Amino acid sequence: MTAADALDWDYTRLASTYDLRADYHAGLVEQTLQRLGLPPGAWALEVGAGTGKLTGLLCGHGLQVLASEPNTSMRTVALAKPALRRAQWLACRGEALPLAAGAVRLVAYGSSFNVLPAQQALDECARVLAPGGYWLALWNHRDLDDPLQREVEALIRHHLPGYDYGQRRVSPQDSVMGHGAFSHIDAAEQRFVVEVDADDWMMAWKSHATLQRQAGTRLPYILQDIRSLVATSSALRIPYFTRLWTAQRKPL
């Protein structure tokens, strides 16, 4: 992916429904921050902070958070939440960070590393991380072994036989370890179940950028068919995995 391609991930129209997506597993994130030995008050940068789903967890740990989000609509949603105003919000992209070298102990990507050109993003991450600091990336993945999710997948692929989740369901290990500036990559995951209103669940699908990009004009028909799967349900139990990777910045 080139820098120009990365601009195609425009979340302006998705911002209003993005918060209806499942939150990350808070316990897994907190356990990870404790394992990394990041003390309260340490500086952390979140790249692609969106509406603040990860930002709030980083702030809750007591970190000093710089939240980078280039999309105005996403930042507006985030800044409407008083708890997220503890972070300092920056309008910048992950390939061009306005930070000094070695400025932070953690660079985190919540569902954003996959929309960046990996080499450029890792170059900037390595530059702004203090030696011994940490890169962290995580995503929520629907449990595709769940019966409802199997039906959803079948519907999507009926409309889009070549549907591809892209990098968001691919381990970033090869990119990170191949870069050369990082070591000791670790992976962790936690399955959890979200109880959600069926209408809210359908609204959350409207923020699914990967599906929107590939569906084009077929998106309304896909969403209509997904809605038919839950037409008689008012509440749903949706299983997810939060999957998380960390790597340490090598000494200079």
UniProtKB/TrEMBL annotation:
<comment type="similarity">
    <text>Belongs to the methyltransferase superfamily.</text>
</comment>
<dbReference type="GO" id="GO:0008757">
    <property type="term" value="F:S-adenosylmethionine-dependent methyltransferase activity"/>
</dbReference>
<dbReference type="InterPro" id="IPR051052">
    <property type="entry name" value="Diverse_substrate_MTase"/>
</dbReference>
<feature type="domain" description="Methyltransferase type 11">
    <location>
        <begin position="45"/>
        <end position="135"/>
    </location>
</feature>
<keyword id="KW-0808">Transferase</keyword>
<dbReference type="Pfam" id="PF08241">
    <property type="entry name" value="Methyltransf_11"/>
</dbReference>
<protein>
    <submittedName>
        <fullName>Methyltransferase family protein</fullName>
    </submittedName>
</protein>
<dbReference type="InterPro" id="IPR013216">
    <property type="entry name" value="Methyltransf_11"/>
</dbReference>
<dbReference type="InterPro" id="IPR029063">
    <property type="entry name" value="SAM-dependent_MTases_sf"/>
</dbReference>
<keyword id="KW-0489">Methyltransferase</keyword>
<dbReference type="GO" id="GO:0032259">
    <property type="term" value="P:methylation"/>
</dbReference>
